[in-house]
Design a protein that fits this description.
Blueprint lengths: L1 H9 L2 H15 L2 H29 L4 H8 L5 H16 L3 H30 L7 H39 L2 H6 L2 H25 L10 H23 L4 H5 L3 H35 L1
């Protein structure tokens, strides 16, 4: 009976795809890999804040304006840590702190990237890089992560100017400003930067053997899911004050861990989506 039901469900492509993603999630212990990724992300979070503080000063960005732009995507507890730590760093900023922040970011972020590469190795049964090559590729992506953060902050600062100029060239500024589209276009550009970063991350982590697995569908799903999940998680935690009764003064830290675990799970599931698509196409060719 169970086999007949399974065969009946798998006759529908969308249901079959969802079932295969679920099978990979449980068989490859994606939750454990997401916990490993969240561990390295929490270690990366605070050094990145040191670099963000330096970027904010260089771009002459108001801290309150930055927090306002991040408010829709970050839970209130995470936003509180974000703001308090940036304020603390701003009063103790130095070249030595910036260098140590950049070094620790590269160290821990590269470990997170290697963890993602190991997951790809388990999925496909073939590794992209090994040994020193894997370390070099992970360090490269850590530097790319810092560049993506810097570009994102630059978009926050110059986004309105760029879109106003574009509207003047296309003679659409009156229509677009009436509906307040400039602000949302800024968020779309930020989402595009995240998508591009995830595409490059998946491509480097994917096996080099032929045929190459797809990366764009999973990256598109992951970037959209990250934005939607962050907004929903922020709304859920913002409308609930009960979690602080359980964890007390540690509530904000626990919230940060849960949010990073959610982000890590989505990043890995994007790879799982690519893997399932790859296996389905291979079966179709056979």
């Amino acid at each position: 009976m169970k086999q007949k039901l399974d065969k009946l469900l798998r006759a529908h492509p969308p249901i079959r795809f969802a079932m295969d993603v679920a099978d990979v999630y449980f068989s490859k212990r994606i939750s454990r890999a997401a916990a490993e990724l969240a561990y390295f992300l929490i270690l990366t979070f605070f050094p990145i804040m040191i670099c963000v503080s330096a970027f904010v000063n260089e771009l002459h960005l108001d801290l309150n304006a930055l927090v306002e732009h991040a408010d829709p995507f970050l839970p209130q507890g995470v936003l509180l840590i974000f703001q308090e730590y940036l304020t603390y760093i701003d009063t103790n900023q130095s070249s030595a702190m910036l260098l140590s922040g950049a070094f620790l970011t590269i160290l821990f972020a590269s470990a997170a990237v290697r963890g993602l590469m190991n997951i790809m190795d388990e999925l496909y049964g073939r590794a992209t890089f090994r040994g020193l090559w894997q370390v070099a590729a992970s360090v490269l992506f850590s530097v790319l992560l810092l560049a993506t953060i810097y570009l994102s902050l630059a978009v926050v600062v110059t986004g309105n100017w760029f879109f106003h100029l574009l509207g003047q060239v296309l003679r659409l500024e009156g229509l677009v400003e009436r509906f307040g589209t400039w602000q949302w276009m800024k968020y779309l550009l930020l989402l595009g930067l995240v998508f591009l970063f995830i595409v490059l991350l998946y491509r480097f982590a994917a096996p080099l053997n032929r045929p190459r697995p797809p990366v764009v569908p999973g990256a598109l799903a992951a970037s959209a899911a990250l934005a939607v999940a962050s907004v929903l998680f922020s709304l859920l935690m913002g409308n609930s004050a009960r979690y602080s009764l359980v964890y007390g003064s540690l509530a904000s830290v626990i919230l940060l861990l849960v949010w990073l675990y959610l982000c890590g799970t989505i990043l890995i599931l994007g790879n799982v989506v690519n893997y399932v698509l790859f296996t389905h196409r291979r079966e179709a060719r056979r």
